[in-house]
Amino acid sequence: MTLVQDAFTSNWVAPLGPHVDGFERELSDATGTGHALALSSGTAAIHLALLAMGVQPGDWVLCQSFTFVGTLNPVMYTGATPVLIDSESDSWNMDPVALRKAIEAGLRKGIKPKVIMPVHLYGMPAKMTEIMAIAREYGIFVLEDAAEALGSTIGARPAGSFGDIAALSFNGNKIITTSGGGALVSDRGDWIDRARFIATQARDPAPHYQHSVVGYNYRLSNVLAAIGRGQLQVIGERVNARRANFERYREFFAAYSAISLLAEPSPDVQSNRWLTTILVDPALSEGITRETIRLAMEKENIETRPLWKPMHLQPVFADAPYFGDGLAERLFEDGLCLPSGSNLTDADFDRVFDVLSKILRPLCASSTDSAN
Ligand SMILES: *Cc1c(COP(=O)(O)O)cnc(C)c1O
């Protein structure tokens, strides 16, 4: 019997239930953390983490600008101020140098930032050793947005185990999915307990319904947790498939000096390669841009996407302070996410490489004397 069938035949189609407990145990094992809380989305997980850490209106939350809006929206729900930090070029994630500048700028205004929130974008781990050292130096909590990074590691330690607490997502597009879902993982049992309480309508212990603080309905259902448990069993295969996709693209693009892929910054860093991304160097690409490539692919019904548009360029965050020198903007200008699903076939790659070869022909020195 499958895990999902079990949820139905045991008639445990209610919110919560034994699969939620099992999924939470397995998530804390998978991330090497003491406690886990299964939730309805990654966005809800980030919101609850901020509340459990005591974030208040007006507090500074230091966020990576180069990310998906799901990182930032929960900061707005709390009334805190998102302070946007640029990326560095090794991982494309939070730049420790800009981070320190932001903290010092806050301190000069008499504001001690409350939380640092790095993201492991596209599965590539952020520079957690440097970021944690800065966080400890100033006594600031770290919330890892590991929504895209389940299965990524630094020195064999899982992404999500470095900060004080981490958020995961099981949205439909992520490396494993419950169709929609998320989780918090942490060694801080008190924070996980607090988040669990707030996520379940903040019911005070009493025989009747009694409430002294505002709560939310953010838990994951037993049926979706059963799906999650099945998905967790194949995370290793998913990571292998995504990494194999990256290798195929890397070999293909080796012939084109104008196109680069993000390498793992050191041998101890392993990305789950959730998405394979490329950068088109405008100095070498003879007028071909990421948009030329995107449109040519679209014509053949192949979906690609520009990299995340940085949050400091988004109208909704126009008032947020920003620290950096524009790397995230250049990544957005020149970068493209390629088809990266775990089920891509040889025929799919043939189609993709066929379009790319045609578009990039002017850039390939050996194209004129190749066999075809
Ligand atoms: C997907 C994602 C989120 C939000 O997760 P949901 O489950 O979709 O709410 C947050 N941050 C990042 C970086 C993400 O990719």
Descriptors for this entry?
disordered C terminus, binds pyridoxal-5'-phosphate, four-stranded antiparallel sheet, 15 strands, alpha/beta, eight-stranded mixed sheet, 12 helices, 372 residues, Aspartate Aminotransferase, domain 2, Aspartate Aminotransferase, domain 1
Provide a concise account of the structure shown:
The protein is built from twelve helices and 15 strands. It has 372 residues and is an alpha/beta fold. The chain has two domains: 3-235, Aspartate Aminotransferase, domain 2 (3-Layer(aba) Sandwich), CATH 3.40.640; 236-371, Aspartate Aminotransferase, domain 1.
Describe the structure.
The protein is α/β, with parallel strands linked by helices and 372 residues long. The protein folds into two domains: 233 residues, Aspartate Aminotransferase, domain 2, CATH 3.40.640; 136 residues, Alpha-Beta Complex (Aspartate Aminotransferase, domain 1), CATH 3.90.1150.10. Helices cover 37% and strands 14% of the residues. The protein is built from twelve helices and 15 strands. It has an eight-stranded mixed β-sheet with strand order 1-9-8-5-4-2-3-14, with helices on both faces. It has a four-stranded antiparallel β-sheet with strand order 10-12-15-13. The protein has a three-stranded antiparallel β-sheet with strand order 7-6-11, with no helix packed on it. The radius of gyration is 22 Å and the shape is globular. The C terminus is likely disordered. Pyridoxal-5'-phosphate binds next to α3 and α4.
